[in-house]
Design brief:
single chain, mainly alpha, WGS project CBMG000000000 data, contig CS5907-c003457
Protein backbone atom coordinates (compact mmCIF):
# COMPACT_ATOMS: atom_id res chain seq x y z
CA UNK A 1 0.00 0.00 0.00
CA UNK A 2 2.91 2.35 0.59
CA UNK A 3 5.02 1.40 -2.42
CA UNK A 4 6.27 4.62 -4.08
CA UNK A 5 3.93 6.64 -1.88
CA UNK A 6 6.68 9.12 -1.08
CA UNK A 7 6.93 10.13 -4.74
CA UNK A 8 3.25 10.37 -5.67
CA UNK A 9 1.55 11.25 -2.39
CA UNK A 10 1.55 14.97 -3.26
CA UNK A 11 -0.99 14.18 -6.01
CA UNK A 12 -3.25 12.19 -3.73
CA UNK A 13 -6.77 13.61 -3.71
CA UNK A 14 -9.82 13.06 -1.55
CA UNK A 15 -10.93 9.98 -3.50
CA UNK A 16 -7.53 8.28 -3.24
CA UNK A 17 -7.30 9.12 0.45
CA UNK A 18 -10.69 7.46 1.01
CA UNK A 19 -9.41 4.31 -0.71
CA UNK A 20 -6.29 4.23 1.45
CA UNK A 21 -8.29 4.87 4.63
CA UNK A 22 -10.68 2.05 3.73
CA UNK A 23 -7.76 -0.36 3.29
CA UNK A 24 -6.21 0.91 6.52
CA UNK A 25 -9.50 0.34 8.36
CA UNK A 26 -9.79 -3.24 7.07
CA UNK A 27 -6.25 -3.96 8.26
CA UNK A 28 -6.88 -2.40 11.65
CA UNK A 29 -10.13 -4.37 12.02
CA UNK A 30 -8.28 -7.58 11.19
CA UNK A 31 -5.64 -6.83 13.82
CA UNK A 32 -7.99 -5.81 16.62
CA UNK A 33 -11.18 -7.70 15.74
CA UNK A 34 -13.15 -4.44 15.85
CA UNK A 35 -16.67 -4.05 14.49
CA UNK A 36 -17.41 -2.55 11.05
CA UNK A 37 -18.89 0.56 12.62
CA UNK A 38 -15.66 1.63 14.33
CA UNK A 39 -14.05 4.80 12.96
CA UNK A 40 -10.71 4.71 11.15
CA UNK A 41 -8.99 6.84 13.79
CA UNK A 42 -10.08 4.59 16.65
CA UNK A 43 -9.17 1.41 14.76
CA UNK A 44 -5.71 2.81 13.92
CA UNK A 45 -5.11 3.85 17.52
CA UNK A 46 -6.16 0.46 18.89
CA UNK A 47 -4.03 -1.40 16.33
CA UNK A 48 -1.04 0.90 16.80
CA UNK A 49 -0.97 1.86 13.12
CA UNK A 50 0.24 5.27 11.97
CA UNK A 51 -2.38 7.18 9.91
CA UNK A 52 -1.95 7.14 6.12
CA UNK A 53 -1.25 10.85 5.70
CA UNK A 54 1.32 10.93 8.48
CA UNK A 55 3.08 7.83 7.19
CA UNK A 56 3.29 9.28 3.67
CA UNK A 57 4.58 12.60 5.02
CA UNK A 58 7.31 10.81 6.97
CA UNK A 59 8.31 8.75 3.93
CA UNK A 60 8.41 11.84 1.71
CA UNK A 61 10.45 13.79 4.23
CA UNK A 62 12.87 10.89 4.61
CA UNK A 63 13.30 10.65 0.82
CA UNK A 64 13.81 14.40 0.49
CA UNK A 65 16.43 14.51 3.24
CA UNK A 66 18.24 11.48 1.81
CA UNK A 67 18.29 13.07 -1.65
CA UNK A 68 19.64 16.35 -0.25
CA UNK A 69 22.47 14.65 1.65
CA UNK A 70 23.83 12.66 -1.30
CA UNK A 71 27.35 13.54 -2.46
CA UNK A 72 27.55 15.78 -5.53
CA UNK A 73 29.08 12.95 -7.54
CA UNK A 74 26.15 10.60 -6.96
CA UNK A 75 24.11 9.94 -10.14
CA UNK A 76 20.84 10.92 -8.45
CA UNK A 77 22.30 14.23 -7.27
CA UNK A 78 23.48 15.38 -10.71
CA UNK A 79 21.00 17.99 -11.95
CA UNK A 80 19.11 16.98 -15.05
CA UNK A 81 17.29 19.59 -17.09
CA UNK A 82 13.74 18.39 -17.60
CA UNK A 83 11.29 20.18 -19.85
CA UNK A 84 8.63 19.51 -17.22
CA UNK A 85 9.35 19.12 -13.51
CA UNK A 86 9.56 15.54 -12.29
CA UNK A 87 7.92 14.19 -9.16
CA UNK A 88 10.96 14.89 -6.96
CA UNK A 89 10.73 18.59 -7.78
CA UNK A 90 7.08 18.59 -6.71
CA UNK A 91 7.95 16.60 -3.60
CA UNK A 92 10.67 19.07 -2.62
CA UNK A 93 8.37 22.04 -3.11
CA UNK A 94 5.63 20.32 -1.11
CA UNK A 95 7.98 19.57 1.78
CA UNK A 96 9.45 23.07 1.75
CA UNK A 97 5.95 24.59 1.86
CA UNK A 98 4.31 22.31 4.40
CA UNK A 99 6.84 20.46 6.50
CA UNK A 100 9.97 22.60 6.65
CA UNK A 101 8.51 25.23 9.04
CA UNK A 102 7.77 22.48 11.56
CA UNK A 103 11.40 21.37 11.58
CA UNK A 104 12.80 24.89 11.99
CA UNK A 105 11.71 25.17 15.61
Amino acid sequence: MDYASNVCSYRRGVRETKWLNKAQKVGAQAITGAFKTVSVAVAEAEAGITPVGERHSQAGTRLYINMQTLPKTHPLKVPINYTTPNSLVYLGAFIDRNLAPAYDT
